[in-house]
């Protein structure tokens, strides 16, 4: 934090919020063993640091590129959370384009302020109202009989003057044997190790059975207004099977929304890829037998899968590598909306010290190339009270946006878009050849 910034809320030791957080911290850590950290990997240590509720973590090692942008001065002070523009080494590529690469992680491109205020609102509405619904699977579907038009629309109906809060019923009958419901729990997702997908094992992946997760019979009927806060993810494009961490190619691919597809393609086209990979550390071998293909991305990049992540302020996403895509190098485009977050990205194992990046609403990250696509990454913290003012209600008569603004007060949405197959790989032909 710069010396001129005034401490507020949780950051100010004389404030009621600070005292309350301190009391809660002392209560919950009373019996905790404080000598376990020698076992932690460097990634785990960083996760712990940024997850800590009290005292609030120091963000002076967190790269905050919004600080380069004068039009974002009000936004970067929100909630008292501020990183630093010089926390790690970066280079601007294609001057004037606001695209940055980090020499420590070849293939990572950070694009702050890329999505306009209006596009941010549109994407938030799209995520909740249009996307998190049939035919796109969400985490709620395994356990609840969610209406076809999704949990958000059921919630909105319940908020109408004569509307009733709709009860959403469990999938399981109470006579089924008990099953836990990990997908509905707050906090980190369970880790499942899987072999990285590749053209060589595509056939095995495509033909291995994908057993649907059993519904929990410990969940009770819940009103739509409560369940909307338990939405965690919604699938995009090819169906993803969480149990095996593989795509289920036996299910029909849902078309990627044309607006989202267009936005991601425009972003990938706007990058001078020569500037990203010129002089990089990755060798020819890292790119696989066909060699580097970044020189074709402007023409060939076309997303066909992904996930929309919905985070409440207490949620985290543990260190992981996204290795289910058959192509291990093509750009993954990740769009941040709502409250800001700490994004950690390290190396090929959890033993590499991760770089911390503050991602704010409208910022985009591209993960591309073999080093970056196989790098461990995660989100240990959503930063409370960082919803930018352009996502709040502006006019009293902004009646529809009111619901989104309310939900977003304590939320972050991440739209994470991927391309499953490498250039020229036709899954159907591939199938026939075997
Ligand atoms: O929320 C984010 O910024 C990252 C999400 C992510 O890594 C994923 O969906 O695989
Ligand atoms: Fe990821």
From TrEMBL:
SUPFAM superfamilies for the chain: Clavaminate synthase-like
Gene Ontology terms for molecular function: dioxygenase activity; metal ion binding
InterPro entries: Alkb (IPR004574), AlkB-like (IPR027450), AlkB-like_sf (IPR037151), Oxoglu/Fe-dep_dioxygenase_dom (IPR005123)
UniProt KW keywords: Dioxygenase, Iron, Metal-binding, Oxidoreductase
Gene3D superfamilies recorded: Alpha-ketoglutarate-dependent dioxygenase AlkB-like
Location of the Fe2OG dioxygenase domain: 302-421
Entry superkingdom: Eukaryota
Biased amino acid composition, Basic residues: 20-29
Residues that hold Fe cation according to the record: 320, 322, 377
Stretch list, region Disordered: 1-30, 161-222
GO CC, any one term: nucleus
PROSITE patterns found in the cross-reference section: FE2OG_OXY
Cofactor: binding comment: Binds 1 Fe(2+) ion per subunit.
Comp. bias regions, Low complexity: 172-183
Pfam families registered for this protein in UniProt: 2OG-FeII_Oxy_2
Cofactor(s) required, per the database record: Fe(2+)
PANTHER family documented for this protein: ALKYLATED DNA REPAIR PROTEIN ALKB-RELATED (PTHR16557), NUCLEIC ACID DIOXYGENASE ALKBH1 (PTHR16557:SF2)
Descriptive protein name: Fe2OG dioxygenase domain-containing protein
Species: Neolentinus lepideus HHB14362 ss-1
């Amino acid at each position: 934090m710069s010396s001129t910034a005034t401490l507020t809320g949780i950051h100010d030791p004389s404030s009621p919020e600070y005292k309350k957080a301190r009391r809660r911290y002392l209560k919950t850590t009373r019996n905790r063993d404080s000598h376990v950290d020698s076992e932690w990997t460097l990634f785990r240590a960083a996760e712990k640091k940024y997850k800590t509720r009290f005292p609030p973590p120091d963000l002076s090692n967190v790269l905050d590129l919004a600080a380069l942008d004068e039009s974002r001065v009000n936004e970067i002070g929100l909630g008292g959370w501020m990183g630093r523009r010089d926390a790690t080494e970066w280079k601007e590529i294609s001057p004037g384009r606001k695209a940055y690469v980090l020499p420590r992680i070849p293939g990572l491109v950070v694009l702050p302020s890329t999505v306009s205020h209006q596009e941010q609102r549109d994407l938030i509405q799209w995520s909740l109202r249009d996307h998190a619904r049939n035919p796109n699977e969400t985490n709620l579907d395994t356990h609840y009989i969610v209406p076809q038009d999704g949990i958000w629309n059921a919630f909105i109906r319940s908020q109408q003057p004569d509307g009733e809060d709709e009860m959403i019923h469990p999938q399981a009958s109470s006579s089924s044997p008990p099953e836990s419901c990990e997908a509905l729990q707050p906090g980190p997702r369970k880790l499942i190790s899987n072999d990285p997908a590749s053209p060589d094992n595509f056939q095995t992946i495509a033909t291995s059975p994908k057993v649907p997760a059993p519904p929990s019979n410990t969940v009770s009927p819940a009103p739509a207004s409560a369940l909307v806060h338990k939405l965690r993810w919604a699938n995009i494009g090819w169906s993803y099977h969480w149990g095996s961490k593989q795509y289920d190619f036996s299910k029909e691919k849902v078309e990627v929304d044309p607006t989202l597809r267009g936005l991601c393609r425009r972003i990938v086209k706007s990058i001078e890829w020569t500037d990203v990979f010129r002089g990089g550390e990755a060798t020819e071998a890292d790119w696989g037998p066909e060699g580097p293909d970044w020189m074709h991305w402007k023409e060939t990049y076309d997303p066909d899968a992904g996930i929309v992540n919905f985070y409440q302020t207490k949620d985290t996403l543990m260190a992981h590598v996204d290795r289910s895509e058959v192509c291990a190098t093509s750009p993954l485009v990740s769009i941040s909306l709502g409250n800001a977050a700490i994004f950690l990205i390290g190396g090929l194992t959890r033993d590499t010290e991760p770089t911390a990046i503050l991602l704010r609403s409208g910022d985009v990250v591209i993960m591309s190339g073999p080093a970056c696509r196989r790098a461990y990454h995660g989100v240990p913290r959503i930063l409370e009270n960082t919803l930018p003012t352009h996502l709040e209600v502006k006019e009293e008569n902004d009646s529809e946006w009111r619901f989104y603004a309310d939900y977003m007060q304590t939320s972050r949405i991440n739209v994470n878009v991927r391309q499953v197959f490498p250039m020229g790989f036709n899954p159907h032909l591939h199938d026939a050849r075997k």
